[in-house]
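retry 2 of 3: previous attempt timed out while embedding C2E. Reduced batch size to 1 and resubmitted. Inputs unchanged:
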Amino acid sequence: MLRVGAVVASVGIFLAGADFAVTALIGDQTARQINELSKVALRRSEAAIDSAGAILNRLVAKGPMDCSAGALQALRLHVYQGTIVKDIRTVDREGSVLCAAYSETLEFDNGWARREEMFQSADGQLRLFRVPQFTGAAFGVLRDIDGQRSLAAILRIDGNLLDVMPVGLRTQSDVTLTLPNGEQVAGYHPDASSRPPAQTVAFTTVSDRYPLQATIHVRPQSLSARQDMAYLLTMLAAGVLGGVFGLLLASYLNRPVDPVAELDRALAAHEFKPYVQPTFRLKTGDIIGGEILARWEKPDGRLIPPMSFIPLAESSGRIEKLTWQILKSALRELQPEMRQDKLFKLSVNITPRHLLGDGFVDDLRKVVASSSVSTRQVVLEVTEREELADLNKATDVVKELGEFGFRIALDDVGIGHSGLSTIQRLGARILKIDKFFVDAITRDQSAVVVVQMLVALARELDMSVVAEGIEQQEQVDALIACGVEEGQGYLVSPPLSLDRFKQFLDVHNASAAAEGRISKPELAA
Ligand SMILES: Nc1nc2c(ncn2[C@@H]2O[C@@H]3COP(=O)(O)O[C@H]4[C@@H](O)[C@H](n5cnc6c(=O)[nH]c(N)nc65)O[C@@H]4COP(=O)(O)O[C@H]3[C@H]2O)c(=O)[nH]1
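retry 2 succeeded.
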């Protein structure tokens, strides 16, 4: 799962990065290419004017262009031989047409420019002008013959602009040729239905020989790199690179983590939290305390149960630090409630080795003293799962703890190592009956007998009995019948985070006070 996540995330990041870079780079490159194409359009147009100028020069050199039959014949011959020049006309000084090679073409005209409306070429030889026609506009190129007359070539060069743009961009663009006054003299426009909308980007090149500029208008989307093969190839490469990087990342993340180093990191980050499960009086349901149960709140939000890390914490010698961390935290947070209800008991699990370790009693006293909570309200649950290596020393420690007011509970009684003699000698004040017997008590008579026996033993030794893992009211009834007075279990509440445990206490105390079972002064007494 981690591997798939790392690969997907890496591919996504690489593609996004590549998209950004490639869009900028290729988009920029596309813009430069279109700019080059506008130069191509202009060069072609200049070449067409050069060609028309050359024809007019030849005609002027040939002889009198005086509208005689011979002169018109010569004009027609040149028009016939050329492809761009559609007609050649002789005009007077003002610009009025005197005669034309093909006089029929005059019918297509929709006006005629006056001489002063024409634009002169840089070398002063030619004048360019727009010839409005019913079918659009033609391009006029005028050359003076003498002080009285001129020759005007009528050009149609739209076709020369058709293939300036690559096929893929033709429907996305316009190519136009305009005079300095903005009048269009030639142009290629795609089919009207697919013409570029008003929102276009313009690329213009201005001629330094003729009063003319070529402009290409394109849709902004056409500049997008996404249509480009280079884009697709780059994105493919980025995807592959992202995948490879993701696999490397996944194997790095999946590398075996030293579990003890991970425990140390979590301890340093205070990721172990005290959850608290309430203990209650079986007959009344009153809350009389709670048991601290460790939880590991991982940075990713996962909540790890204690049996997944307590054994390693015990075997690696980290359990002591962990125990102090969660005990201090619980005492600090629950101090107001514990000072208000002096009968409230908070219990914490202590491993036998920790209990018997150097300085345990002193350390515990310091921790509890710094929280301003009475030692009488702190219960140490020593599990029976692990054997008490040195029973004599354990008995001494328990005695010393008792002298300072702490109580010891023997946990998991009935399923652990210690026999009746341990229970009797250790001097513990509380016996915790394991969930195993609580589960069986409503269906197995022998469980009833064991519980009755433990209750009798506890009375004999002046101990109280707490039953663990109560989930049903029938179990409560059976336990009461056996003489058990206190318990804990999901029937009342699972272990809760400190915040939720405090809320639980508030709600419980409020309803108990409302029912008149407990009054606040009693709690404080
Ligand atoms: N199914 C069911 N379970 C119930 C019910 N009521 C309580 N339990 C669970 O029974 C366990 C009782 O704690 P435990 O016997 O001390 O057993 C504890 C204790 O031995 C150990 N542990 C937990 N926290 C610590 C700690 O801070 N230090 C040490 N040394 N051991 C700890 O881990 C054990 C397991 O703790 P948890 O998983 O919290 O499991 C807890 C509790 O959540 C119920 O009605 N139904």
